């Protein structure tokens, strides 16, 4: 559905009509991507980051974080176990940790590809040559949120980073033939609904294959500790409008949504989402990868989460996707 900026703003603001919006998004989801929910096993393999984004709990400047990175073998083992419990996509996410050189990442990707899974990388900004090498090693998808398209806000949230550079990275990734995932946070300080409308138009314009919307949740050990943060309702409305605008893309029910409400992910799955990314990180690492407070499932195991979310999905009449769950482009949108 083509929506102009005014219409998007209207839908984002209209709290009275939000149930109708969610219903509509749910029916568009059913029509375009069906009832399968695709599960991705998320491995948080390093909380070491060279960046210092004001909103993020693992920012370089947070000296209270106990830092870790998995060894090459630990990471490969974690992926093997996730594949064994049935995940057909492995998402490898980390801070921007340069311990993982191009060669190391390529070796890891090649090893994990042997488990018959699709691989998504979510490791931030790298060079064109690195993105190319990772793709050639077998990475299928890349996930990197633009966070906000308001450039001034972006630069305020991280004075050291460049919005243009992040955009350039997304374009390189797309050009290299990855499936491209991006997304935003809602409820950032000073962010307006006009700006969120621009974000949605941007995601539509660049032709993303997947996009995640998460509420911003202030982390106590960051400079934004005292900010208000985003609400689940606004995040869900944003996600639902995105489903109307981009009917065939993959949309995750995000972990941050569930961190604000015990049924957050199920609510999202009934308002446009068709993907869930359960955490398959093991042991202490789960707690240490704390982008925001109140993260769910920190004391659970991968097997527990897989069966927990599986039951919740089936309880609402949906099925678990059996394939890799790639973006299937529709011809009539
Ligand atoms: N609240 C919510 N989401 C956050 N992220 C980072 N910090 C926070 C926070 N405080 C999100 C960013 C990033 C993704 C991995 O996590 O959007 O891209
Ligand atoms: Fe982790 Fe339910 S998904 S306990």
Architecture blueprint of SSEs:
Elements: H1 5-13, H2 18-33, E1 36-39, E2 41-46, H3 72-84, E3 89-94, H4 102-113, E4 118-122, H5 128-137, E5 141-143, H6 151-157, H7 163-175, E6 179-186, H8 193-206, E7 210-215, H9 232-245, E8 252-253, H10 255-260, H11 264-269, E9 275-276, H12 285-288, H13 302-315, E10 319-320
Parallel strand pairs: 1-9, 1-10, 2-3, 3-4, 4-5, 5-6, 6-7, 8-9
Helix pairs in contact: 1-8, 1-9, 2-9, 3-4, 4-5, 8-9
This protein binds 5'-deoxyadenosine and FE2/S2 (inorganic) cluster (FES).
What can you see in these coordinates?
This protein is of the alpha/beta class. It has one domain (5-320): TIM Barrel. It has 13 helices and 10 strands. The chain has helices at residues 5-13, 18-33, 72-84, 102-113, 128-137, 151-157, 163-175, 193-206, 232-245, 255-260, 264-269, 285-288, 302-315, and strands spanning 36-39, 41-46, 89-94, 118-122, 141-143, 179-186, 210-215, 252-253, 275-276, 319-320. Strand 4 (118-122), helix 5 and strand 5 form a beta-alpha-beta unit. Helix 1 (5-13) crosses helix 8 (193-206), helix 3 (72-84) packs parallel to helix 4 and helix 4 runs parallel beside helix 5 (128-137). It is globular and about 50 Å long. It starts with a helix and ends in a 13-residue tail after the last strand. Bound molecules: 5'-deoxyadenosine and FE2/S2 (inorganic) cluster (FES). Residues 55-56, 145, 147, 185, 214, 216-217, 219, 256, 291-292 line the site of 5'-deoxyadenosine.
């Amino acid at each position: 559905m083509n929506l102009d900026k005014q219409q998007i703003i209207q839908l984002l603001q209209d709290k009275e009509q939000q149930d109708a919006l969610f219903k509509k998004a749910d029916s568009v989801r059913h029509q375009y991507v069906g009832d399968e929910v695709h599960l991705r096993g998320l491995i948080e393999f390093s909380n070491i980051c060279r960046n210092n984004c004001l909103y993020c709990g693992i920012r370089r400047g947070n000296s209270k974080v106990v830092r870790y990175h998995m060894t090459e073998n630990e990471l490969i083992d974690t992926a093997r176990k996730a594949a064994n419990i049935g995940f057909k996509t492995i998402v490898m996410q980390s801070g921007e940790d340069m311990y993982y050189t191009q060669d190391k990442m390529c070796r890891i990707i090649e090893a994990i590809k042997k488990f018959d899974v699709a691989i998504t990388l979510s490791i931030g900004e790298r060079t064109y040559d690195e993105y190319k090498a990772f793709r050639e090693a077998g990475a299928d998808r890349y996930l990197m949120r633009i966070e906000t398209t308001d450039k001034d806000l972006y630069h305020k949230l991280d004075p050291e980073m460049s919005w243009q550079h992040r955009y350039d990275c997304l374009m390189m990734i797309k050009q290299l033939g990855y499936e491209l995932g991006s997304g935003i946070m809602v409820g950032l300080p000073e962010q307006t609904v006009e700006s969120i409308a621009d974000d949605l138009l941007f995601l539509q314009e660049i032709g993303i294959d997947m996009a995640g919307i998460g509420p911003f949740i202030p982390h106590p050990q960051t400079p934004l500790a005292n900010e208000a943060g985003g609400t689940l309702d606004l995040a869900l409305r944003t996600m639902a409008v995105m489903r109307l605008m981009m009917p065939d893309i993959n949309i995750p029910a995000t972990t941050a949504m569930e961190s604000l409400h015990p049924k957050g992910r199920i609510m999202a799955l009934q308002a446009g989402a068709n993907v869930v990314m359960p955490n398959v990180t093991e042991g202490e690492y789960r707690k240490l990868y704390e982008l925001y407070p109140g993260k769910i499932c920190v004391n659970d195991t991968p097997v527990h989460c897989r069966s927990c979310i599986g039951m919740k999905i089936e309880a609402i009449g949906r099925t678990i996707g059996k394939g890799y769950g790639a973006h299937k482009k529709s011809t009539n949108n």
